[in-house]
Amino acid sequence: MNGLMKTSRSIAMALCAIAIAACEKNAVQDITGSLPGSQIKFFNFAINAPNVNFYANDTKMTGLISATGTESVSGTAFGGVGSNGLYSAIAPGQYTLTGRITATVDKDLVIATAPATLADGKAYSFYTSGIYDPVTKKSDAFVVEDPLTDSFDYTVAYVRFVNASHNSSPMTLYVKGVAPNTTPETAIGGLVPYKSAGVFTAIPGGLYDLSTRVAGSSTNAFTRTAVTFNVGKIYTISARGDVTVTSTTAANRPFLDNTANR
Fold first, then answer.
1. Using omega within 30 degrees of 0 as the cis cutoff, is the peptide bond preceding 193 cis?
2. Which end of the chain is more exposed for a tag (fewer CB within 10 A), N or C?
3. Quick one: DSSP state of residue 182?
C-alpha cells in the first residue's frame, strides 16, 4: 500500500470515528457559538392574500416541509402567523422583508415588501396587510418593534394592540373582565392608526372580552369574546379585515387576532 493510500485510509477512518462519536447518545456537541441577536415573527394579514413564505433579503425565514420531505406549497395562509407564532432568530442589520407566493403558479413571486433595520437584542413583527390585488399581485406590508423586556412583573399579563386593518380609523383596544374576573373595562394604550403598534399594558390575568373603538365613539368597531391572558405572558392583539363587512363568518370580516409574544 503506497503512502497516499495509507493517508486516505487514515483520513477515512478518522471521519468514521467522528461520525460514530457524534451519533452516540452521550456524544458532546459544541454549542458555544453565539445565536443571532435579533428576533422577528411574520403575519399574513393581507385580505385575500395567497399562501406565502417569508424572507429576509434572500434568506427564507419560514416554510413547511411536506410528508415527502420536500417543501410544502401551503406556506402561511391569510390570517396565519409563520412558524406557529414563534420568533425566528436573525442577525442584526438592514433587510428587505418579503412575503412570497408558495403555490406552483407564481412560485416565489414577491407580493409584499417592507424595509427594516433590526437592532441587536430587539424583536420585531412583519405584517402583510391591506387587500391583495390579484392583478398587480401586491399587498401592503409593515414592520413594528416588539419591545419585549425580561424585567417585568410575572404576576400580571401584558397586552398591546397592533392595527393591521387598512380601512379602519385609529382605534383604542379595550379589555373587560369576564366573571369571575372583575376587572373593569380598561384601555390598552391609546389610539393606534393603521400600520402602527400601541404600548404593552399590564393587566390582571384572567378571561376578557375585547373591543376597539375610534375616538369619540361608543360603538365597537371590532370585538372578540372570552380571551384568556395568563400571568407572566406577553400578548399582541392585532386588528385585521375590512371594517365595512358585517358578516360574522366571512374571511375578510373585522377580526382581533391574539398571538403570544412570550
1. no
2. N
3. -
Grid cell in block for residue 225: 369574546
What's the CA gap between 98 and 115, in Å, rounded? 9
Q: Is 153 exposed, middle or buried (0-12, 13-18, 19+ CB in 10 A)?
A: exposed
Whether 63 and 129 map to the same domain: the answer is yes
* pLDDT at 186 exceeding the cut of 90: yes
Range of the domain at 247: 150-262
Q: Same domain for 196 and 108?
A: no
Res. 17 pLDDT band, cuts 50 70 90: very low
Q: CB neighbours (10 Å) of residue 239? A: 25
Read off the pLDDT of residues 24-59 as tens digits, 9 standing for 90 and up: 333 333 444 556 899 999 999 999 999 999 999 999
- The pTM of this model reads 0.84
